């Protein structure tokens, strides 16, 4: 199993992502959206950019 480097993601950023996705998606869609946002946040992008990129991922998968 490959170990990923530890990255600190501020709770405020995670809260913004969760607030944005609340009551927008089905549970499964929300889970995938949150995972996608976390991936982008781990890459070091801003929370706004992570949300935008995760939304693009979601729309592509429709």
What features would you highlight for this structure?
single chain; about 60 residues; about 70% helix
Protein architecture, described:
It is a single chain. This protein has three helices and no strands. Helix content is 68%, strand content 0%. Helix 1 packs antiparallel against helix 2 and helix 2 crosses helix 3. With 62 residues, the chain is mainly alpha-helical. The model has no long low-confidence stretch (mean pLDDT 92). The termini are far apart. It has one domain.
SSE blueprint and pairings:
Elements: H1 11-21, H2 27-42, H3 47-61
Helix pairs in contact: 1-2, 2-3
Termini gap: 31 Å
Q: Work out the number of β strands.
A: 0
* Structural class based on helices, strands and sheet pairing: mainly alpha
Count of spatially separate domains:
1
Overall average pLDDT: 92
Q: Which series of helices and strands comes N to C?
A: HHH
Low-confidence stretches: none
Short description:
This protein has three helices and no strands.
């Amino acid at each position: 199993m490959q170990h990923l480097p530890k990255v600190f993601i501020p709770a405020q950023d995670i809260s913004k992502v969760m607030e944005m996705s609340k009551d927008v998606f089905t549970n499964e869609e929300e889970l995938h959206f949150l995972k996608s946002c976390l991936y982008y946040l781990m890459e070091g992008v801003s929370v706004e950019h992570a949300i935008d990129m995760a939304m693009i991922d979601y729309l592509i998968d429709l």
